[in-house]
């Protein structure tokens, strides 16, 4: 549509200048529209959050957390989590093997399930090989069933996911519910998510402001009754750990062990036939065919065996919770048992614990109160 100006009440010179100005404005607007049409679609301006866990991509705690993060449509949430339960794999990473990665959906978010550990998942996601974004604002590992306190954090795959993010330079949180066997239920996981959402929101806000604690990640523990918690407390890592009890078992008492080993041996032979070190596998088969496997209950009473015999034993590890009476009320395990939401700063640095503790205390006092 042409742009025109009626000049009934204007002199000819003024009308002509105004006409030219409107034409120039029209051309400028058209150029702006054409320029915007040529521009690539900009990525979402929402803060990007990466979620992982230790219990596997099908765990309800992960789904509840993702659904809650997406509820207000304020975050761009992505998931990269283990294909199966890797709760006690620690900070192990997969080398020399190929990981399988499959795209999927979790709670409405784009996700990838990985045949590796939580540390693998975070490292792979942050490498830029899976997602289009360059770097998330925050990495969250959880919500996991079972408290991660004390030295148990060294065994925890969930904690390792958050630690790997920190090592890669991305702020991170690990969130766990103090799950009680035969008492806790899935609704407690939903309640745990509701309790920790204000902490997550405060973390994202302060990361963007540049005032989130540095050189550490936060290990957040939710008490077994989340909605009746006594408040949030900054805590220190306690010296507690679960006892690792190894029990010797036989195939007579545990037939599945022998079946499992047999399947594993068959799988190894199949892989060898597919081309992975076939000659070495063949040599191993020839050597093993001349050996006689002897199953024993105790090496101590087994005596000596000839070079043609190999000793085969089966073990099963069972975790036994070990409670310690700690006098300090700022230790994570004690505060969690007393019903507090615990926030424990963890780091890979040997020094600077007091500085980190003070930094987190100051941040939490401001973040929870909302007086920013």
TrEMBL record:
- Give the Gene Ontology MF terms in alphabetical order: metal ion binding; nucleotidase activity
- Which superkingdom does the taxonomy of this entry point to? Eukaryota
- Give positions of region: Disordered: 25-45
**The entry's keywords:** Hydrolase, Metal-binding
InterPro entries, alphabetized = SurE, SurE-like_Pase/nucleotidase, SurE-like_sf
The residues covered by the Survival protein SurE-like phosphatase/nucleotidase domain are 49-241
| Classification via Pfam families | SurE (PF01975)
Name of the protein: Survival protein SurE-like phosphatase/nucleotidase domain-containing protein
- The organism encoding this protein is Vigna angularis var. angularis
Write the lineage as a comma-separated list. Answer: Eukaryota, Viridiplantae, Streptophyta, Embryophyta, Tracheophyta
Q: Which gene encodes it?
A: Vigan.02G304500
């Amino acid at each position: 549509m042409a742009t025109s100006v009626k000049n009934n009440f204007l002199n000819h010179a003024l009308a002509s200048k105004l006409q030219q100005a409107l034409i120039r404005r029209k051309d400028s607007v058209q150029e702006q529209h054409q320029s915007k049409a040529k521009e690539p679609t900009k990525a979402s301006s929402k803060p990007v959050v990466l979620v992982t866990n230790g219990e596997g991509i099908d765990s309800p705690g992960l789904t509840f957390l993702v659904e809650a993060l997406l509820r207000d449509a304020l975050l761009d949430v992505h998931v990269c989590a283990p294909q199966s339960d890797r709760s006690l794999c620690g900070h192990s990473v997969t080398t020399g093997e190929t990981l399988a990665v499959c795209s999927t959906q979790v709670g409405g978010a784009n996700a990838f399930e990985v045949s590796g550990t939580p540390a693998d998942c975070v490292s792979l996601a942050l490498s830029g090989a899976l997602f289009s974004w360059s770097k998330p604002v925050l990495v969250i590992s959880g919500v996991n069933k079972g408290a991660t306190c004390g030295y148990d954090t060294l065994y925890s795959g969930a904690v390792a996911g958050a630690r790997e993010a920190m090592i890669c330079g991305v702020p991170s949180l690990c969130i766990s519910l103090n799950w009680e066997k035969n008492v806790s239920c899935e609704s407690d996981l939903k309640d745990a998510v509701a309790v920790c959402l204000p902490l997550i929101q405060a973390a994202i806000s302060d990361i963007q402001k540049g005032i989130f604690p540095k050189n550490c990640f936060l290990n957040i523990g939710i008490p077994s009754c989340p909605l009746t918690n006594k408040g949030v407390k900054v805590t220190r890592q306690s010296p507690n750990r679960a006892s690792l009890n190894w029990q010797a078992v036989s195939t007579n008492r545990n037939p599945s062990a022998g079946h499992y080993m047999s399947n594993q041996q068959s799988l190894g032979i199949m892989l060898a036939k597919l081309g992975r070190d076939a000659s070495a596998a063949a040599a191993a088969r020839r050597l093993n065919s001349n050996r006689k496997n002897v199953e024993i209950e105790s090496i101590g009473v087994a005596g000596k065996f000839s070079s043609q015999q190999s000793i085969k034993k089966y073990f099963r590890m069972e975790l036994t919770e070990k409670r310690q009476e700690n006098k300090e009320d700022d230790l994570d395990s004690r505060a969690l048992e007393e019903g507090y939401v615990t926030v424990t700063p963890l780091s890979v640095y040997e020094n600077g614990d007091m500085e980190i503790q003070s930094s987190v205390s100051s941040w939490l006092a401001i973040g929870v109160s909302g007086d920013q």
